[in-house]
Structure formats: structure tokens, C-alpha cells
Design a protein that fits this description.
Blueprint lengths: L1 H18 L3 E5 L18 H4 L7 H6 L1 H20 L4 H11 L3 E6 L5 H4 L7 E3 L2 E8 L5 E3 H9 L14 E5 L8 H13 L2 E5 L11 H7 L3 E6 L11 E4 L2 H15 L1
Parallel strand pairs: 1-2, 1-7, 2-3, 7-8, 8-9
Antiparallel strand pairs: 4-5, 4-6
The structure holds nicotinamide-adenine-dinucleotide and zinc ion (ZN).
Length: 260
């Protein structure tokens, strides 16, 4: 029974994709859990083991102890990220690009898995930056995250800039840090002009990113939410699919191909 309902929903979304020209896919940590990267809020996630207050941007800037904790956590996260491979959900999104249906992916993730799955770089808007690069906060010199990991693994607890001695920080957006202006503006514009907006694996609680589904609805687009648990936008969605992103997106894209 449950599977029949899911099957009908898959069919409905496949038809919506066939009718759409400008799909915007919005992804959160849930699109990558099947790749072995845990989300932050679920049990066993990073926030079970670390205190988010230790990762406030202002604390990172002002306290060497916070920087040390930050790098310890980020080092653990980095090792998980480099081992992770894209899953069916990431590949399904690439299929949407191949069908020339995809306007862009707006992601809260910092794991680079959409690009690794083969999505064009210029199709990805990274709202929270990327953990593949590290920036000097003073002279803005850019380092690869891999190079910095080598330093951490040699025993350096807090890395600093070779050029100017400035504070180094992964190119991600921390709590308390301003959202990137260009990416946020672009994401809002794309959301408003989408004709189909698909949320995959986000609890939709982190602002302002979580406003995007609302912009899409205001612009007249249809809204589909694929998530393991309910979100506060479910009642505004045209279709809500409850389950695993990889499984559901795989089924949806297979159905589109059958019909197309
Ligand atoms: P979140 O942890 O708040 O929510 C993730 C959602 O995905 C949850 O509602 C959960 O039920 C759902 N989910 C988990 N596994 C799923 C699956 N297999 N299929 C479908 N749904 C699934 O994450 P968020 O809303 O993305 O926000 C957390 C913040 O932490 C983001 O800003 C993000 O930048 C960051 N983050 C990134 C990564 C990453 O890059 N992979 C991982 C963890 C956290
Ligand atoms: Zn510097």
C-alpha cells in the first residue's frame, strides 16, 4: 500500500519534470547521508559529539582554543568527505542536466559531491561554501584543503598563512558568518524563476537558505520535497515524498526516461 502511494507520487513527479523547463534542485545534508556523510542534526550526527557554540565565527576569530577545536572537528569531517562517493541522488540530478531540464542546483552542502557526480561547475550554487579550499582571512591567499590536512596530520593544531601569518579558515560559511552575497542573490533569483523546485534532503531550518522554497512558490513554480522527515514547508508542497533520497530520485529519473 505504502509502496503503491510512493509509486503514484514518483509518477506524478516524473510528469512534472517532463513538463518543466527550469528545474531548481535544492539540496541539504540529507542528499549525502547515503554517501556516508552524516547530517548534523540526526542522532549520531556531528552535533551529538561537538557543541555548535564552539563553531561560532566570532569565537573562531577571537579564541585560539576555539580554532583548535574547529580544526579537530574539520579534520574528522574532511577525512569523511574525501572518502565519500556520490550516490544515486547525485547522479539522478546529473541526468536532469543531461535532459536539459536543470537550471541549477542550490546546495547547503560543502562536500563537492554534485560536481564529483559530473554536474557542471557552473550549475552549482554553493550557499555555504566548500570544504575543498581554505582561505587566509587577511591576505585572501587560497590553499587546497588537502595541503592543510597534511599540515594537521604532521601535528600542527592550528594552521596559519605562510604569506602573512593570518588566520586560515576553510572556505565554508560558519554560524555567525555573513552569507555570500552573490550566491544568495543568485539563488533567490533562480528560485523565483524556476518552474519546478525540488528539495532533496534538507530539514529546511537553516535561514536564509530555507527561504528558497517560498521564493519558488511566490514565483509560481511547483514544489516537490523529498526528505526522510517532515518539514515546515510540507503543507505548501505539491508533492511530498518521504524516504531515502537516492532511492526516490533514482526511481523518479528512471520513470522520466521510460516516459520520455
Ligand atoms: P539537516 O541536518 O538539518 O537536515 C538534513 C535532513 O535530511 C533531515 O531532515 C533528515 O531527515 C534528512 N535526511 C537524512 N538522510 C536522508 C536521506 N538518505 N534521504 C532523504 N532525507 C534524508 O541538514 P541541512 O538542512 O542540510 O543543514 C545542515 C547544515 O550543515 C547545512 O548548512 C550544511 O551546510 C551543513 N552540512 C553539510 C554536510 C555536507 O556537506 N554533506 C553534512 C552535514 C551538514
Ligand atoms: Zn595571508
Amino acid at each position: 500500500m505504502k509502496d503503491r502511494i510512493l509509486d503514484e507520487q514518483v509518477d506524478k513527479v516524473a510528469n512534472m519534470i517532463l513538463d518543466a523547463d527550469r528545474i531548481v534542485v535544492f539540496t541539504g545534508a540529507g542528499v549525502s547521508t547515503e554517501s556516508g556523510i552524516s547530517d548534523f542534526r540526526s542522532p549520531g550526527g556531528l552535533w551529538d559529539r561537538y557543541d555548535p557554540n564552539d563553531f561560532l565565527y566570532q569565537r573562531f576569530l577571537s579564541s585560539p582554543e576555539s580554532r583548535e577545536k574547529y580544526w579537530e572537528m574539520n579534520s574528522e569531517l574532511y577525512n569523511t568527505l574525501v572518502d565519500a562517493k556520490p550516490n544515486r541522488a547525485h547522479y539522478a540530478v546529473v541526468e536532469l542536466e543531461k535532459m536539459e531540464k536543470l537550471d541549477c542546483v542550490i546546495t547547503q552542502n560543502i562536500d563537492n559531491l554534485h560536481q564529483e557526480a559530473g554536474l557542471s561547475d557552473d550549475k552549482v550554487i554553493e550557499l555555504h561554501g566548500t570544504n575543498m579550499w581554505v582561505n587566509c582571512l587577511d591576505c585572501h591567499k587560497r590553499y587546497s584543503r588537502k595541503e592543510i590536512q597534511e599540515r594537521l596530520e604532521k601535528g600542527i593544531k592550528v594552521p596559519y598563512c605562510d604569506e602573512c601569518g593570518g588566520i586560515l579558515k576553510p572556505a565554508t560559511i560558519s554560524f555567525g558568518q555573513a552569507m555570500p552575497y552573490e550566491e544568495t542573490r543568485e539563488a533567490e533569483m533562480r528560485s523565483r524563476s524556476s518552474d519546478l523546485f525540488m528539495v532533496i534532503g534538507s530539514s529546511l531550518v537553516v535561514q536564509p537558505a530555507a527561504m528558497m522554497p517560498m521564493y519558488a512558490k511566490e514565483g509560481g513554480g511547483k514544489l516537490v520535497i523529498i526528505n526522510m522527515e517532515s518539514t515546515s514547508y510540507d503543507r505548501n508542497a505539491d508533492v511530498v515524498l518521504r524516504g531515502k533520497a537516492g532511492d526516490i530520485m533514482g526511481r523518479i529519473v528512471d520513470r522520466v526516461k521510460c516516459k520520455g
